[in-house]
Request: fold
Amino acid sequence: MSLLDGLLGDSDLARIMGDAAQIAAMLRVEAALARVEGRLGIIPPEAAKAIAGVAADLHPDAAALEPGTARAGIPAQALVTALRSACGPHADWVHFGATSQDIQDSALVLQLRTALEVMAERLGALDAMLAEKSAAFADQPIPARTRFQIAAPTTLGAKIAVWRAPLGRHLQRLDELRPRLFNVSFHGAAGTGAALSPSTDEVRRALADALGLSAPEIPWHATRDAIAELGGWLALVTGSLGKIGIDLILLGQSEIAEVAAGTGGGSSTMPQKSNPVAAEALVTLARLNAGDTGTLHQAMIHAQERDGAALGLEWAVLPQMVVRTGAALRIGLDLATTLVPRPERIAATFAADRGAMMAEAATFALSRQMPRAEAQRLVAEALRAVAETPDRTLAQALDALAPGGDWTERLRPARQTGEAARQADAGKPSREDKT
Reply:
């Protein structure tokens, strides 16, 4: 437990990736292996039945396995020792033909399969909520900002559509990733399957079927590209949510306050404040996962047939990356659900700008009746007049310089949002129809 678990953690994903779940997954693999080997005549049927039964009922405390893990450098070995001890006369048939890494990796895939189901559901829910919000605010004008400066009008729906756009691609990426990730590991000590040869492949395929996984012929003890790919996917998801977070922070800051989302956190000494705690958490989670992606890629530099240093890096960072992604999706959905515009503040921003953000629109309108260079000169002159006269708008300045254009109506923000409303169309599917 950590004081930050409520801020940056997720209880569901922490449970799925936690010690108890890892132990249960490893025991599930050991039980499946025993049943398969018993059915194929590799070990005595009575031993297979006994081992599977003990594995189903065994619940060793993680703390009890810590000393053995520290000695062996891998949790699976400590667990196998406990399982053998509990199996009595059948101990010699436990873990038959496997290596600890086989059990560790196969169990990890089972944990990840469950975790990804939860994350995919949350990602789909977030995608649907953003689609709903994008449609609801498709026509709500709001200033667009580039490089932290007011640029031109857009709509809130179009902003949300930009937030939503990568989510469907992340779901597609996940569909593509699953077959590369959901593989059993059963290749033995040096990756050659020599202990059970020539029956290794048969056992591997039967074990994969029992666990609902695929059975690659080449060992992945020392090739961790699928794990690194998963880490990249996790960082992509949190990165997309971090973009939402930073935008909400900026749109909600005191001087702007054009959008509200979530429930702010208070200050211990400044009662007027409502800090964007949830949006800040999205940014923090994204940056943590981005950093750990590099560490996970370091684990791909895996010496020879097995490298404990590389595996240690993976074990240290991957579970936390999964938990962070689950937390970000949970927080993101809450923010999306509660997101609303503040039209009065948006209107105040437009009023304070006095039409300067319409300079590009005015230039292109004038270019239809005069050379573009002349149009740019006129708009620049109008902008100088706006700057020199505190109560003058760009429309008023252009009325004096290029009369007859009804500039107030032509430069109304709602008329200058281009394709924003179409971009906010919530009817577009997030995922391509693969049928």
